[in-house]
Amino acid sequence: MTIDKLPSGAYRIRHTENKKTYSMTVPYKPSMKEAFTLIQNKINHTNEEPMTFKQAAEEYVASKKNVLSPSSIRNYNSIIKNLPKQFLETDIHAIDDLTVQKLINNYAAEHKPKTVHNLCGFVLSVLRLFLPKADISVTLPPKPRTERYTPTTEDVKRIVEASKGTPYSIPIRLACLGLRNSEICALTIFDLKDDKLTINKGCVRSEDGYVVKDVPKTDASNRVIVLPPDLAEDIREQGYIYKGYPQQIDKHLRRMQKKLNIPSFGIHRLRHFFCSYAHDTLKLSDQTIQALGGWNTDSVMKSTYRHAMNESEVQETIASNFSFL
After folding, report:
1. Do 184 and 92 share a domain, yes or no?
2. Facing residues of 26 across strands?
3. Looking at 130, 163, 178, which one is the last position of a domain?
4. Banded model confidence at residue 300, pLDDT cuts 50, 70, 90
């Protein structure tokens, strides 16, 4: 067995067995033990039935069709569609560290780091399913740290006031209470009992458009919150919560920001406002805030979540202190 450094900086492993020479390239200098393991894996796969990455990826997505959200399936199919043809047609048994690293490097030249990370995660998941013994290691571009604007209480009050009389008034106020955009769009009038709102589903985008999925984003997303009385009454008078698509709420929010000369932020930032207001103004604990907002937690936090949901005084505090909605 020989290990040679190439002009590119990668290392080529060569090994002859049964009068046949096998070769593979890796982006680092392997030890003799590592090189032997890598080349043996390639030898073991040589006689296996060929399968292109595209075939493997499509089978991977199909195997998870009933357990992942429609939006996840749509995103996976979008990744497959945008992968280079050469990579899609490559036999998975011939894919190694260098092959994936070249893909990542070329993709990073035209896409944002987050998109590159998502693509890499999908590619490695497919390879791990069909090549469980493969140990692919790649370098990814660092994700930039961005400071996003979190609206102030005054910002929120102005947006809520400006949205009155529009189809987006109720959705905006619900977003200020920590609801996700997908949760708001899935709600119906039957989810409101007295002043209590049950949140147990989401509206997600599939290949064919938006659908209501009766599976929450996380276990903690299943929750019941108490609404401010005025908000609950407005919902009852209107007879429904929202009729439209998630992105329409976000577009309305952007229009209001421009009209009111408020810094731009997405609808999801209202969940951050909820956290900030509940923590800094209401002085609620982190555990309680996470429970009310439906964020997932570890086993200890889940126990706290169930406890917090049973404390009616916490719910009443939320409802009364968000009365300006």
Report:
1. no
2. 11
3. 130
4. very low
